Amino acid sequence: MPASPTDPSGLSLETRIAHLGKHPAHAGGAPVNPPLVRASTVVFDSVAAMRDARARRGEERVFSYGARGTPTTFALEDAVSELEGGYRTRLFPTGLAAIGMVLLSYLKPGDHVLMSDSVYEPARQLVHSFLDPYGIRCSFFAADGSGIEALFEPATRLVYAECPGSLVYEMCDLPKLAALAHARGALLAADNTWGSGLQYRPLALGADISLMAATKYLSGHSDVMMGTVATTREAWRALNERCDAFGMTVSPDDAWLVLRGIRTLSARLRLHEQHALEVARWLQARPEVATVFCPALPTHPGHDLWRRDCRGTNGLLSFELRPEIAPAAVERLVDALSLFGRGSSWGGYESLVAWANMRAARSVSDWSARGAVVRLHVGLEAPADLVADLGRGFAAAGAGEAG
User: Fold this and answer.
1) Which of 89, 222, 236, 339 is the Cys-Cys partner for 77 at CB 3.0 to 4.6 Å?
2) What's the predicted TM-score (pTM) here?
3) How many CA within 13 A on the CB side of residue 1?
4) Other CB atoms within 10 Å distance of the CB of residue 281
5) Is it the case that residue 402 has pLDDT exceeding 50?
6) Nearest CA among 185, 143, 147 for reference residue 161
7) Domains of the chain, with CATH numbers?
């Protein structure tokens, strides 16, 4: 077998192939977007440089190993920190992973957490699958925050809220919750997926921790899963240390996609808001509809808090059908829609519909005597087309049919 060809350096072709193209030379300008950097191993010029990086990475953001982040994920962390008004941000493979890591970072066996009745249902399920078995007690408080003072205990270490609430968008007075928690030595965490950092900023309202499912509006295209957690300087260490211990990271490819989505966040949300409000007002006039849930509507119970604390709304709204309308009619309504896809999640460019089980989603407020709730995510399609689609859905359902 002939020997591998060598070049003047004396290195074989196999060796040269392993080291080719690492430092391409180029002249000219710089790209608009940061480069996509994929990395697991990171190499250093010397043992001293490697030792120094490892010594500093607990307190500083240092490119030292792929599980600690890459320049691409660092760029997204910086973008989210700016959006949320936070000290620093960590990224997670899903929004639920972000929720779980918040609970894991700030609670230990024997602690007590207060959780809003309006939280994302999988967060509620974490109480049974994670908190209960590990001896961390949880009490749910009313979605609007009423009566929470009586629920604090000496062991309460965290108040966890979602505002506006999942599914029907209850508003709570977040600065009041922050004051109550801090006076008792507890932290306040807020799920800000609805607000996206643009429409709502929990950290500016007194929260210590703000988390989002970047899967939703930050990405904006229904093609990536990710969660983010931004904190104040004081709350940062516990989260950062726990994330490092568990090797929490995200794909730089996914980070690049979310970073690209953020560029158009403001423009997209303006259209989502405009379209959703047109659909909401149309629904308010339907005889089959008992209530339309959207905090931007003057009829919404939390409208005054929304006006005080939010910069706008988004594409989410829900409507409650009259209680006498039969479940079969509700299902026909949902199935008859053609422009609203039947699916979970939201925040992409497309419209979606889901039938919400409010009796399972709430334990403090009583939904047993109320009508079925249908959630819409109003996308970027023309509102007139969406309204026509809903009209056909009501007609096909025969929604006036009593149960």
Assistant:
1) 89
2) 0.92
3) 1
4) 14
5) no
6) 143
7) 47-263 (3.40.640.10), 265-397 (3.90.1150.10)
